[in-house]
């Protein structure tokens, strides 16, 4: 034998990727189901696109354009074409719509949820793989379609368990800022994108940070330097004045913005869109507490062409040390009329809404908000006679057929070890059938949740031993009925 040690890889996760336990996955699934219920009710249809798309079909629209060719995870196929993991669900939708354009009923209304990947610098709360949940309308021009998306986003917030006043959808139109840029002589496409990316960081970097990015540039905490837009001081002040125009009613914001774009046809078109959006939202009874106009909202992705919006959490929570949690935006969207046109050569209007599932679910958990808690109660069938594993498995199947979520314990160990396993699994009930129960045609039901509650309340151990209030023995034929009765009683 060789003295060389066998290679043992180190168990480790790649940076920016996360493992999700059952509690997180269930919370995310409940959130997705709540959103899908809204999408279905509003007439959207489900769609699934592949994880990989050809890199040229995805296009370069990520906000991390300072790092070209590093925004996506890509590989070369055996035919020499480059494929990349999708960075969102909208670019694949544009490809799908273009590829199937003649066969689609237009407007085409679809929703989709799934993983997306971004090859970006990971950090706290910033992952390279995450789940998005989208709804989009392709083929509907005009601000009314955008207003519907904003109302839809607001409805998803409600479906997620938030009350009015605990969230707000902030709305803007990127053409208004374009009009401001025209007014200061900064309409060059590359310069425009630098200004948009700077403005999009207002909530994270503050006014001074945005001013630095509009000027010479900014060095972050790690020492990395981002080159700025190099605007003159007077132009920087004009852009900041635009970003400061928020506050008050939707009508008041429109009135403040009007003088800033009076010399720009593009800016006035954006302002007219906001005026119509306000009218539609009012008709849909989406009040000023649910949707506001905020010029600082520009969205980071480069494909937006008109109205844009973000759903922000206003409800607050605190860390253990009393420091407030900052949630910020959990979703957003906007109009992207040029995205399908990359494939077709003709203008195809489109608008959509997307939210980050993991971020939103984590925020809801911290706020103790959300849709119905937990999964169905779990029953563990203990395996007390090793030569009767088949009987225990059959019993678990019988429980499942009766509508009970159940599993048979398949590990080794005595009753104490198996009950400890049931506790760690968060099981509600354990079923005990040993030799005595089997011979007498009986089964013992141990209510683990009730037992834990009573154990904390009962001080008299003798009473506890004699009464065993959380445990009962029933006829084997009545087991399913008895368990269903306990579950129903526990759920009120």
Q: Descriptors for this entry?
A:
492 residues; 18 strands; alpha+beta; Rossmann fold; elongated; eight-stranded mixed beta sheet; 19% strand; BirA Bifunctional Protein, domain 2; single chain
**From the 3D coordinates, which CATH architecture of the largest domain would you assign?**
2-Layer Sandwich
Q: What's the domain count?
A: 2
Q: In the CATH hierarchy, what is the superfamily of the largest domain?
A: Bira Bifunctional Protein, Domain 2
Task: Look at the structure and give the mean pLDDT.
Answer: 87
Spatial extent as radius of gyration: 29 Å
What is the CATH class of the largest domain?
Alpha Beta
Shape estimate: elongated
Distance between the termini: 66 Å
The profile of the biggest β sheet is: 8 strands, mixed
Number of helices: 18
Bin the helical content. Answer: 25-40%
The CATH topology annotation of the largest domain reads as BirA Bifunctional Protein, domain 2
Unreliable stretches covering 5 or more consecutive residues: 64-69
Strand content: 15-25%
Strand order of the largest sheet: 1-5-6-13-12-11-7-10
How many strand units? 18
Structural class: alpha+beta
